[in-house]
Write the structure tokens for this entry.
Amino acid sequence: MPRLVMYFAFIALLLVSPLAAQESVPRFEPAPCPFNYPARYHVECGYVVTPEVHSDPDGAAIRVMVAIFPARSSTPAEPVIYLQGGPGSSGMARFAGGLDGFGEAITNEHAYILLDQRGIGHSLPSLDCPEIQAMHDNALGGAACHERLIAEGVNIPAFNTVESAGDVIAVADALGYETISLLGSSYGSTLAFTVMRHYPERLRAVILEGVTPPEVDLMTSWADSMQGAWAQMVADCASSRRCFGAYPNLDGMLTEVVTRLNAEPLEATIPNPVTGEDAQITLTGTLLLQAMQSAFYRYDYIPQIPLLIAALYTGNLEPIMQLGTQLTAQSSIDTQSEGAFYVMRCSDDVLTTTPEADAAAQAAVEPMFTEAFGDTYSSWEPTCALWGTQLDPVENTPVISDIPTLMLNGAYDPVTPAKWADAAAENLIYGYSFTFPESTHGVYPDRCATGILRAFLSDPYTAPDATCIEEYIGVGFRLPPQ
């Protein structure tokens, strides 16, 4: 029987087989891998059965799906557990085609453990919301999904970052590890900080990228962060003779294009590369900025952005049509457990800020960025009335720790700027924060970045040599055709 068929048959059995109350938790139950990972990794998969509420170990239990990539060393060091971002994204799905450069570097000496956090991906119960796609409506579909999960007996408030931090330790316990290290990306860095707060004695070292400390008021930050990423691009272009020669007024061009498109939107057709169907869009300045934010997530898109702005400035729509098609293709393969996303975003971010804080933050940002990214708080209120749960306010305070922590950020990050990591490092006795000038949301795992990571894991109490960062030559922006 093919491995994926075995996996889905196993899932069907689990869905009709309640957890045996007399069995101890946490425990590991081997299961077929949900992905055909490349054979060279020799991956072992299974479920860690863990309490739904960690303060009630004899209560209901849930299953967290894990994939264990063994170390290549015959004398491995402590394992590293990877915490995916989102929230709501599958850590196992991200590496279905194989590990990235960081993962390859880690598995030289350490087992690397991927997990789908509670409620996400292949963990059970799943907080996926197929109702949203079926209804083509986030609000109605989300409400229907919430109603269904409640009817199925899912304790939705338990699917939060604090309980998820307990799952990380449960995974370590079930697999027999006393000490672990973590690698957390984006929201995964918030989860890693939460593990540091509650279980410091279990951690040897922590690596974070796209750093999102728990004290950050994320919901009020979107406009400021995108404005900062754009300012970085303008400054880098101005410092490059070739780029400045081609785009001497890059900032002014963007302002004019956004103003023009908001006043007179353009109708355009973007083909969906997956379905083959054409989609009609109304291109406004606000939509352009939001598309640019998505483009800033990708290393390979960043060099194209000045060319795109210059083309729009002269009335050429072809580059933005190409970008729109690329972004549509990317979004069609992204997976997210919407219910988990709602619970964690509401509990960690929306319910911890205020309309007054949001208004003050938007007043400090250029109006065009506020218009594009400044309405997030109010738009979340109906969703969080259903999905949100209040956490202890301590969860949104800085983590003060002596756990060695390496923080890696990109200068072009449009959502988690490097200044957040620099500020968090002030509270960490062994905190090291580095900004990579050509990277974005998540540092590209090249020779320099992986070398810093390896040096840190080898000796986390010593600041790693990061002089290789000085060797970057900067983004090679695309120039107009001659």
Summary: Residues 1-216+394-482 form a domain with the Rossmann fold fold (CATH 3.40.50.1820). The longest helix spans residues 222-238. The CA atoms of residues 253 and 310 lie 7 Å apart. The chain has two domains: 1-216+394-482, 249-333.
